[in-house]
């Protein structure tokens, strides 16, 4: 089956703090059909998020397929609280890069 | 707004009542209000002008060291626009989480700015209400001693005396109650301490008797102003209307629209879960929200529900100073050194240990070009780029020691001895051969909830007058 990269399918891919101890990721689609296709493909699930970021499932606090927003959203616990010395991303705004290359089978 | 008290809100025969609030800025003072759409919004004659000024996003430094992260000039700009606009219309103005952190000093500053602006513009005398949100560490300590646990959020353990000792400032996040109490006392302008974003807008709606589900949703969708509209444009004004049936949002900037996608999408922003919002007195359940575009620019939402909590628990935020901080930077282009950068860092750490001992300071190395941003989350950390920048941070009790640790750590990277290295005249590049003093290193020490018997007990109210 041919594949497309998530960055070519999503309108928005972003990350941001959700409080000092968590970072939340939003993958938002313009078209409902694209959203449904990605959802069906299982390319972005709790399991694939664990693989992409090499984290155990316990690091994921929330994983939601948010139909009204045509979005897949998940939240992970930080290993270092926002803004503590050594934290490379106080706002958590640059953690989404690895999601670009997620391959989605396109029927 | 009990009917007809002249403080915003309308009631027509008891059924078609509504409340319309104009919000010009999702984080007042952080970047200036775009005045074009705000003035356009004032022409719509809203019942109230309100904005949130808070954010914990800026990290722990402002709360720990009791400063604002927003520039004073922009805070004054935004407060001036809101004050002059609201007083000209004769409607209430509400600001929550004054000065980014909502600490007492920031509330006092906003109150002083409002007073000064009122005199500058010769605004007729009005009632200025404000409340504080800072919590005395002693109060928390006594609660813990009584067995009334201060519960950890997001996987944190219950608050310990050690966490408290490491904390310089604590703020509690107010719900609607202090805003309602000050409106009841006739406040024309309210400056709030740390507040739940949604509560700022929900308070007047609940005071008028609107359904709490709709009222809190109203606050939730309005609080970030133009972030609920598309295309993206920050610091533009939005008007929200709540009725007995629905919440409707409309952007004031001509080029923006509130669509189902933009309004539903906003529910996700900066939050772990788009379906629920938590305040001290309960949970806003957005899982059954129905979104509908009612015209080219407005979206109407129905179906949010408020579920009251079994006990009132306020979220508290605390931050403390860890030490003074100094920063050095070193660049690397030698391919062999890049391949062995961890050995270079070990060499640097070892020399710091030899001079300063094992403890009494912190040392952090962020390797940009490899995983300086994402740390252990970086999937490509075994594929560094062809050049790296290592940012070294030293944290120590005094500025002098922080500088000495940072300069030792940074300079020793220059002298690191790697087996088989070909470049033997210096292992790293420098922009300058010195280190930089930075803000103190601070830490979020508290992200917890505390039980309260009375929803006003943590939020002392004050009333004064301003204007001429």
Features:
heterodimer, A: alpha+beta, Alpha-Beta Plaits, four-stranded antiparallel beta sheet, 21% helix, B: 468 residues, alpha+beta, six-stranded antiparallel beta sheet, 29% helix
Describe the structure.
The complex is a heterodimer of chains A (107) and B (468). Chain A is an alpha+beta fold and 107 residues long. In chain A, strands 2-3-5-4 form a four-stranded antiparallel sheet, with no helix packed on it. Chain A has a two-stranded antiparallel sheet with strand order 1-6. The mean pLDDT of chain A is 96. Chain A has a single domain, classed as Alpha-Beta Plaits (2-Layer Sandwich), CATH 3.30.70. Chain A has helices spanning 6-9, 32-41, 46-53, and strands at residues 3-5, 12-17, 22-28, 60-66, 71-77, 103-105. Chain A starts with a strand and ends with a strand. Chain B folds into two domains: 12-133 and 173-312 and 452-466, no CATH class; 322-444, 2-Layer Sandwich (Alpha-Beta Plaits). By secondary structure, chain B is of the alpha+beta class. Chain B is built from 13 helices and 19 strands. In chain B, strands 12-13-9-8-1-2-3-7-4-19 form a ten-stranded mixed sheet, with helices on both faces. In chain B, strands 5, 6, 15, 16, 17 and 18 form a six-stranded antiparallel sheet that branches. In chain B, strands 10-11-14 form a three-stranded antiparallel sheet, covered by helices on one side. The model of chain B is unreliable at 1-8 (pLDDT under 50). In chain B, helix 1 (35-43) packs parallel to helix 3 (72-89), helix 3 packs across helix 4 (104-120) and helix 12 crosses helix 13 (399-415). Helix content of chain B is 29%, strand content 27%. Classes of the chains: A alpha+beta (107), B alpha+beta (468). At the A-B interface, strand 2, strand 3, strand 4 and strand 5 of A face helix 10, strand 15, strand 16 and strand 18 of B.
């Amino acid at each position: 089956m041919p594949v497309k990269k998530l960055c070519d399918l999503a309108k928005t891919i972003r990350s941001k703090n959700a409080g000092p101890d968590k970072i939340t990721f939003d993958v938002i689609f313009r078209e409902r059909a694209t959203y449904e296709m990605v959802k069906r493909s299982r390319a972005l699930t709790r399991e694939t998020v664990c693989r992409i970021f090499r984290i155990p499932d316990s690091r994921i606090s929330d994983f939601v397929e948010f139909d009204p927003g045509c979005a897949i959203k998940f939240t992970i616990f930080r290993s270092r609280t926002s803004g503590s010395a050594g934290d490379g991303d106080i706002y958590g705004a640059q953690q989404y890069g690895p999601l670009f290359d997620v391959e989605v089978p396109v029927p | 707004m009990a009917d007809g008290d002249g403080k915003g809100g309308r009631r027509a025969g008891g059924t078609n009542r509504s409340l319309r609030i104009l919000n010009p800025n999702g984080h007042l003072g952080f970047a200036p209000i775009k005045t074009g759409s705000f003035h356009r919004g004032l022409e719509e004659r809203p019942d109230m002008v309100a904005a949130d000024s808070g954010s914990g996003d800026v990290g722990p430094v402002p709360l720990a060291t009791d400063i604002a992260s927003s520039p004073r000039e922009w805070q004054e700009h935004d407060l001036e626009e809101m004050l002059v606009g609201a007083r000209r219309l004769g409607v209430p103005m509400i600001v929550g989480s004054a000065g980014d952190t909502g600490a007492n000093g920031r509330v006092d500053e906003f109150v002083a700015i409002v007073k000064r602006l009122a005199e500058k513009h010769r605004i007729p005398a009005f009632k200025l209400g404000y409340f504080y949100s800072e919590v005395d560490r002693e109060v928390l300590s006594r609660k813990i001693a009584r067995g009334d646990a201060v519960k950890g959020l997001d996987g944190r353990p219950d608050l310990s005396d050690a966490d408290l000792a490491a904390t310089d400032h604590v703020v509690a996040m107010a719900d609607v109650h202090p805003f309602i109490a000050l409106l009841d006392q006739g406040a024309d302008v309210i400056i709030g301490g740390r507040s739940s974003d949604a509560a700022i807008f929900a308070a007047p709606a609940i005071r008028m008797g609107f359904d709490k589900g709709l009222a809190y949703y109203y606050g939730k969708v309005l609080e970030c102003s133009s972030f609920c509209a598309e295309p993206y444009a920050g610091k533009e004004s939005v008007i929200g209307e709540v009725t007995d049936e629905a919440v409707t949002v409309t952007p004031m900037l001509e080029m923006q629209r509130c669509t189902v996608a933009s309004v539903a999408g906003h529910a996700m922003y900066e939050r772990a879960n788009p379906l629920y919002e938590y305040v001290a007195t309960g949970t806003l359940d957005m899982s059954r929200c129905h979104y509908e575009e009612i015209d080219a620019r407005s979206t109407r939402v129905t179906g949010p529900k408020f579920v009251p909590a079994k006990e009132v628990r306020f979220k508290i935020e605390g931050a403390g100073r860890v030490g003074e901080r100094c920063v050095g930077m070193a660049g690397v282009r030698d391919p062999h050194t890049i391949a062995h950068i961890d050995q270079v860092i070990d060499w640097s750490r070892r020399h710091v240990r030899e001079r300063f001992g094992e403890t009494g300071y912190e040392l952090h190395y962020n390797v940009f070009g490899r995983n300086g941003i994402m740390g252990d989350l970086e999937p490509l950390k075994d594929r560094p780029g062809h050049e790296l920048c290592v940012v070294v941070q030293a944290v120590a009790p005094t500025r002098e020691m922080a500088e000495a640790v940072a300069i030792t750590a940074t300079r020793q990277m220059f002298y690191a001895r790697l087996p088989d290295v070909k470049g033997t005249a210096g292992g790293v590049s420098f922009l300058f051969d010195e280190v930089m003093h930075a803000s103190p290193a601070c830490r979020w020490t508290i992200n917890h909830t505390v039980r309260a018997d009375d929803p006003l007990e943590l939020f002392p109210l004050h009333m004064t007058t301003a204007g001429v």
